[in-house]
Design brief:
heterodimer; A: mainly beta; B: mainly beta; 7-stranded mixed sheet; 50% strand; globular; Ig_sub (chain B)
Chain lengths: 120, 107
């Protein structure tokens, strides 16, 4: 069965950095596009970043562009999100999600999420 | 960016009620719309894709309709397990966006 397991969240000071990981299993990871989606406490869902199956196509939300970097290692079945210059407004649960397919970019499987708290 | 607006924000209903949630897009998105259910402390779960296609394993009491800019999610007979928050998401263009959510509460 498809499993996505995020890790790497925690408490970080404003301006700091954090690297999130998402370990994928139960499907051929290298065949799928992936995304990160976040949810601030008590708020709705916000798409953050997207990466194609090969890593050649990447998109970011304007709110994180220039600060966050998405990447993947298909040999390790893993997705990453490097977060730099963190701000209080980046505080959220971060989910990794599988994109169903190219041109059908809805999210068919989600991880359980990892909490990032940015506070001094 | 395409803005997605859901209504209502909160809905109070009883078990057995027919429930309808509306999602409006700021521009046409054809049928490129998905619906998700989220329970407290859990990840969202895909219910509907391409506006009206039911995801495998999702009960048939859930249905979706619409195209262009106006969409609806209907629960034909609300069950205790359905009390949750529902989100729509457009995937017509990158910079994928979600509605703000509709919380379905027990009346």
């Amino acid at each position: 069965q498809v499993q996505l397991v995020e890790s790497g969240g925690g408490l970080v000071k404003p301006g700091g950095s954090l690297r999130l990981s998402c370990a994928a299993s139960g499907f051929t990871f290298s065949d799928y596009y992936m995304s990160w989606i976040r949810q601030a406490p008590g708020k709705g869902l916000e798409w953050v970043s997207y990466i194609s199956s090969s890593g050649s196509t990447i998109y970011y939300a304007d709110s994180v562009k220039g600060r966050f970097t998405i990447s993947r290692d298909n040999a390790k079945n893993s997705l990453y999100l490097q977060m730099n210059s963190l701000r209080a407004e980046d505080t959220a649960v971060y989910y990794c999600a599988r994109v169903y397919s190219y041109a059908n970019e809805y999210f068919d499987y989600w991880g359980q999420g990892t909490l990032v708290t940015v506070s001094s | 960016d395409i803005q997605m607006t859901q209504s209502p924000s909160t809905l109070s209903a009883s078990v057995g009620d027919r429930v309808t949630i509306t999602c409006r897009a700021s521009q046409s998105i054809s049928s490129w719309l998905a619906w998700y259910q989220q329970k407290p402390g859990k990840a969202p779960k895909l219910l509907i894709y391409k506006a009206s296609s039911l995801e495998s394993g999702v009960p048939s009491r859930f249905s979706g309709s619409g195209s262009g800019t106006e969409f609806t999610l209907t629960i034909s007979s609300l069950q205790p397990d359905d009390f949750a928050t529902y989100y729509c998401q457009q995937y017509n263009s990158y910079l994928w966006t979600f509605g703000q959510g509709t919380k379905v509460e027990i009346k």
